[in-house]
Amino acid sequence: MGHGLGSLQWRLRDYALTHESDSRLLELRGMKSLSRTFVLRPEPNQVWTALVHRFGLPALPEWAEPMTRILEKEKRIVPVDSIGCSAVLISATCEELLEWMAVGVRRGEFTFPESNGPVR
Asked: Are the C-beta atoms of 46 and 38 separated by less than 8 Å?
């Protein structure tokens, strides 16, 4: 069962992804997808940006590396078959991410800026 969206294509059955453009993120909504996010490059900044935007998380870009380590430790980042990219499936709910963020703040792994201002 294949579907196309411009130069981006995917098969819903086994999550095989392909792309020819510089697309960064593909989110599928539907069965069980509320906790699943597909990212075409598994770099920490790409993973974190996708999750922050998707769930509207109150987060900082500097938290990308430690949160990606948590996701990897919890085995929540899984490679999927892909052509022309290194796509991964991230399985995490908003509630789980907020809990991991709270633990990270308490442990000092996630810090806040010295002064208030826009996030850059």
From this structure: no
3-class secondary-structure state, position 38: strand
Residue 100 near residue 52, CB atoms below 8 Å: no
Instruction: Provide the sign of the torsion angle of the four alpha carbons 13, 15, 17, 22, taken in this order.
Output: positive
With a cut of 80, say whether residue 22 has pLDDT above it: no
Rounded CA gap, 116 and 8, in Å?
A: 39
Cα separations (Å) of 58 from 18, 63, 90, 96? 31, 11, 19, 14
Length of the chain: 120
Element housing 106 (H / E): helix 94-107
Please give the model's pTM, rounded to 2 decimal places: 0.69
Per-residue pLDDT at 119: 65
